[in-house]
Amino acid sequence: AKKAADRGSFDSMVLEQLGQTLRDAAAACTKVAEEALPASKDRELAVEAAQTDVDAGNAVQLAAEQALSAADEAKKAATAATKAAKDALAVFEPEYAQAIEVRDAQAKKLEDF
Description:
The protein has about 110 residues and is mainly alpha-helical. It has one helix and no strands. The chain is rod-shaped and about 145 Å long.
């Protein structure tokens, strides 16, 4: 690199053009960033709205999972109650049949009387 004292007019012109090109590029970048700012804010709002939707969806999913779990527990309880009722019926059925026979016999006696 040349020292400042050794530079000629061509070197100064090149450095001036380089400086101007860099300033123009910086201004163009600043302009692009400023123009993109409103769209960036719009995208930020869209992301926030989407996150709200995701959070709501997650809450609905959690509620559905809890409802499913409660339904499964209710099904297990109902299955157990059904089995208990069938078992009770199996125990009571012979007694019921015997009571019917006794009733029919008593009704027959009453008819014959």
